[in-house]
Amino acid sequence: MMRILFSVLATGLVASCIAGPSTAEANLRLAWSAAGEQHRQLDADAPLTRSAFTGQARLVYDDGVHLQGACAFEWIADRALPERERLDLREGFLGIAYGPGELILGRQLLSWGRLDLLRPTDLFRRRDLHDPIENRHQPVWAARLILYRGRHSLEGVWIPRFEPDILSYDERNPWCLFPDSIGFGQLGPYPTDIREGERREPGGGIGSSEFALRWDARMGTTDLGVVAIQGYDPVPTWFAATSAWLRPDGTLEMTIDAVHRPITLLGIDSARPLGRGTLRGELARTWTSPSPGGHEEPDYLRAGIGIDQTFGQVVAGRDLFLLAQYNYDEGYREPTGFTGYQHFYKHAGLIRLRLRPGRHTAIEVETYRNWDDRDRYLKLELRHSPQDGWDLLIGALLVGGARGSFLGQFRDNDRLRVMIRYQGSHRLR
Amino acid sequence: MMKQAIREHRVIARPRHLLFTGTLAVSLALAAPLMLLPRSSLAEPASSDLPAREWMANVQRAANATTGVAEMRMSLIGPGGRTRHREATAYEKRRANGRMARLIRFHSPPEMAGAAVLALENVERDDDWWIYIPAYHTTRRIAPANRSDPYMGTDFSYEDLTDLRLDDYDFALMGWETIDGIPCRQLEARPANSAVAEASRYGRLRYWIDPDRWIYPRAVLYGHDGEPLKEVRNSQPITIDGQWRWSRTEMHGLRKDHRTILEIRERRIGEPLPERLFTERALRRPG
Question: Which superfamily does B15-281 belong to?
Fold first, then answer.
């Protein structure tokens, strides 16, 4: 079915390319990028945790007003972590706008909410949890209809099949959440090899559709959004072990199936200028459907508020961007085994600083701290673009916290990161 | 007598190509502030007797079409001559309140593809600005206090994207000077109160205005210390449906010796643009 849908989209894209320009000059562009990246753990036996090449090619058509489409493929090769390797259709959508309506069909990056990093209302932003700090955005198949009227817009989203966040099962990945050994009472602990089962719940069929409505409004200087979502937990609500056996070498091999329970989410987000900065906030309440076996998850509230501001010429005549954000999760519980990504903080703070020593150089500092468990990370990055198309990045990540806390379990993951990337684009017409 | 002599000189001195060029690409008021890229209607008589404020009002009227679209290429030139390029499309539309909505959407370089800036000019309150950076997956409001920040590495700041509010400035006419062969009257604008001054990086703005076409080939924007911050040079004017537009605008950041040259590849005026294009929601188009 996806192939058929993709064919339709590709046809639409081609059709859009040969269609004449409407209002503006039509823009057909081919863009590509190639990036090499290494992550090197500090104080580790196997320090190289990423040695990857990422290539992207993207064809995009946009007449600016009525028609747009994009088709993008991404290829990831990772010598250090073969589990990350894939060739993906990253985008494949066609957007048609007429009058006050706009319809966008296909594979697309979909993200809601106004906060940074932790967004209570952003259910459709699939994450690649091979590296949770990286916060890499993944696409979904979706049909979106947006109606505009003055200061208001109403968006309906249908996601025909549920796709969860991407988890890592490979123990070579230092960000893998699964334990490398398990004990049973007096027995064990046994070294464990955990494998992904094939009976994820829900499966990938049409029965796992997700639906959402979003209303946006501009009221004076305030932007407001209200969302209602009927979908599934993007991270597993829990895991069901389907088989376990002790191999002759003493390793316990377990096959587990992720269970993503249906959830209903109601939320609002808002942004408005405040003084010399901008105030942003989100709030969402989530209800999890009980499982047929009677396993009940309590409903929970997530909220966040943040302010950002650019301070002019404060350091050596350069501007400084500062963002400070607070997040609250009522559903917080101590990270237990497999479901640690679910609710890993109750009170958390995020601060981000960005200084531009030069027009093409940026220094960014980001720090996150969980106020209850005191787990934390500090991320430092220096980005420089020596000329058009080229990006160099040198970064460091320091992770801390008690072993029993979410980030504390990864406290040996301090790393250095180096990336070099070339991007280019060519206008075809 | 002196005015008459200057007027005669102006008519004689006007280069013919200014009136008859039509094939050059156009610079656009959209991408840069109306105040940076105006045009004029020949039907409107120039009058040196107009109050200073009316000169600016005429420039603004002449520069703002009901709608407009422009494909542009920006060259960012550093002190050593190192050059970066940006390609973008700019849209503008007159709002129901009589003021303008302006949108610039970037296509290249690839890391900026999809990035956009939206400005909605208001009557009763501060203008609204938003920026969308695809990497952040969200729009951000630009606080009024940050409107003097440069955007996208260019020498333009957010406040350059919108028109001066006439009530917020005191205007004064000054002497005549010929710029690129065009006799121009100098017009100076100063913030009318401290609140306006604090919200802007400019302590005063001086324009060289051609009153026959209500366009200006030059402007100098001064900092609060009285020293020049930026210089604008407009060139290669053409007419589209009787409306004057520049094809090339150079913004020179004088203190950092950095330039942004904006060249218009194609422009259309008066074609219908839907309201939805100028909404914060539509900034987040996936393209």
Answer: Lipoprotein localisation LolA/LolB/LppX (2.50.20.10)
